């Protein structure tokens, strides 16, 4: 049986079930959680529930993961929430959902979730650039690191700090000598050129996580890099 034919024969029953679960979202906590879990099993079939789940997104990881399972029908509302909602308690679950669904949504005709956030790093609005940088910390891929490195030179201090911490979000602190992303070291050290205390603090934290070493100032990092650069880059 073709899928279209099957859908035409069963859509009333399926949509009736979806709307029944949506009606349960206004119930008590336990029944509400049960309804969300049932909607989660339906994937894109639960698309009518997207606006209702978006309204529940505030500090609600269960709703976020259900939106991730729904997939493409939830993409635009989640992107809007991740970049434009005034509350971090909404933006953060939205980013978690987008991170979970990102691989499935990257196709030839869709720039994908990651690229949308990278594009936002160039927005005229500094607040959006900060939010995009923070969001990209949830995605671990070379294009993300490259974009965040570029944002260390952003004109806005908040964007610079957010970009550095976002780079660190994708790293696990290593022991000295066990460095797997040496190409990140030089542009991070270069960030010390900005006379910005909060940025220097972020750079020390992330460079320690990346290299396993710790130096209080730029001079220490530059000296260490000059002594180790050739060896580290030769084994990359």
Produce the secondary structure layout:
Elements: H1 3-24, H2 29-40, H3 50-55, H4 61-70, H5 75-84, H6 88-105, H7 112-120, H8 126-136, H9 142-151, H10 157-169, H11 185-190, H12 197-211, H13 218-234
Helix pairs in contact: 1-2, 2-4, 4-6, 5-6, 7-8, 8-10, 9-10, 10-12
Mean pLDDT: 89
- The number of helical elements comes to 13
Helical percentage: 55-70%
Low-confidence stretches: none
Oligomer: single chain
The major pleated sheet works out as:
none
Which structural class should the secondary elements be placed in? Answer: mainly alpha
Please give the number of β-strands.
0
Distance between the termini: 52 Å
User: How much of the sequence is in beta strands?
Assistant: under 5%
What general outline do the C-alpha atoms trace?
elongated
* CA-atom Rg in angstroms: 22 Å
Order of helices and strands: HHHHHHHHHHHHH
Kindly give the count of domains.
2
Characteristic key phrases:
single chain; 236 residues; mainly alpha; 2 domains; 67% helix; elongated
Give an overview in words:
The chain is mostly helical. It has 2 domains: 1-105, no CATH class; 140-236, no CATH class. Helix content is 67%, strand content 0%. α2 packs parallel to α4 (61-70) and α9 (142-151) packs antiparallel against α10. The longest helix is centred in the first third of the chain and has 22 residues, at 3-24. It is elongated, with a radius of gyration of 22 Å. The N and C termini lie far apart (52 Å). The mean pLDDT is 89.
